[in-house]
Each structure stands twice: as C-alpha cells, then as structure tokens.
Design goal:
206 residues, mainly beta, six-stranded antiparallel sheet, five-stranded antiparallel sheet, 5% helix, globular
C-alpha cells in the first residue's frame, strides 16, 4: 500500500547534526613536590602550587605556590612550617626528555645564589662576597624547579626526570649563617634530595 504524499510529509523524522566538540585550550593543574630532608625529619621541604597548561601550544605558565621551610614548625605537624610564597614563573626550559623544567621565584628576578642566577649547586645567598657580606632581606630570594611532561602533565616522571627537581631558599628562615637551604639530586646543603612530584587536574569552577 502506498502512502499518500500528505501522509509522508506528516511523518516525523530526525535530522542528525554533528557539532564539533570543544575542549578547553588551557587547563589548570595542582602540583606538589617533596624534597626529603634527612636532618629535619619528620619535616620535609614541600612545594605546593598550581600552573596553567595550554593543550594547543604545550606551554606552561603561571606556576606559583608556596615552599615550606623544614627547619621551622613544631616537627610534628607540617602545617606549622613557615611558607615562602613563590609567585613569579621566570624560567622554563626543556629537560631533553620530553619534560619542561619550570621555575618559580619569591622575587621578580632569578638571582638566588652568590654571583647571580639559580644554578643547581649554589649554596650562598645572592650578594655574598666574603664572611663580611651582609645578608639583605630585600634581595633574599627563593625558588623551586618542577618538571612537567609536555605530552600529558599527568604522566609520572621517570627517575631521571624526578632528579631534575631542585629548590633553594635564601630567605630568613631558610638560612644557616651564610648558607641557603637547598635540595637537588646530589644532595643540598643539608643533603635534601627530590623525593616525589604529584600533578593532578584542578577542579573546574563554574
């Protein structure tokens, strides 16, 4: 039996439309990096912060957070430690293995150690010349370097990549005379070494 043309026109039908899926180009991640401090247990030096990752360009920006000072606090609750704000991302370089070494600083410059800069292995504060040098709170800097996998920040680091993490703290509570508190793979001024790094996707707020 053939349907009349009027009946065909009245028959419901679906139109399938393919809309493009839009993904956020910039995502915010939380990061926690822990440096094991053998001489201040149970306190460790901990960086807690955030950064923005551009999924299109794989650029990392806005790294900021706080660096705890393991020699402060009551030695029981890490929450009692003094926290140094690190709000200036001033360096981002390749680790040569698919990761990006990103560094944030307490001051808006990269001068942390004696002679300038923040090269791993530095021990004395910026401005130190001799034992008669005077430490200056206005130039006392601190920094941390994290490592982010560019293909996917959530992928854990290899052991070699983890060992590229570093920190230096030349602020008041991070000083031991003319020496700064530092941590890196070869052992910092108090033998601190990279222990772990955890990155998670930050919740999206409406």
């Amino acid at each position: 039996m053939k349907l009349k043309r009027s009946a065909l026109l009245a028959t419901p039908f679906l139109i399938m439309v393919n809309f493009p899926v839009v993904y956020a180009a910039q995502l915010t991640y939380n990061v926690t990096a822990i440096f094991y401090e053998p001489d201040t247990q149970p306190n460790n030096t901990i960086f807690t912060g955030t950064f923005v990752y551009d999924t299109t360009t794989q650029a990392i920006s806005g790294l900021k957070g706080t660096l705890s000072e393991s020699m402060t606090g009551d030695g029981v609750d890490p929450a009692t430690q003094t926290l140094v704000p690190l709000n200036y991302q001033l360096s981002s370089v390749s680790d040569g293995q698919g990761g990006q070494l990103v560094s944030a600083f307490a001051l808006n410059n990269t001068n942390v150690f004696q002679g300038g800069g923040f090269a791993t292995g530095g021990t004395r504060y910026f401005g130190y010349v001799s034992k008669d040098s005077k430490w200056n709170a206005a130039t006392a800097n601190a920094y941390v370097t994290i490592n982010v996998k560019l293909s996917n920040p959530l992928i854990p680091l290899t052991g070699i990549q983890l060992n590229r993490l570093a920190y230096g703290d030349c602020t008041a509570e991070g000083m031991m005379g003319s020496y700064c508190m530092t941590g890196h793979a070869d052992g910092g001024t108090m033998m601190a070494t990279p222990f772990s790094q955890t990155i998670t996707l930050a919740p999206v707020t409406p």
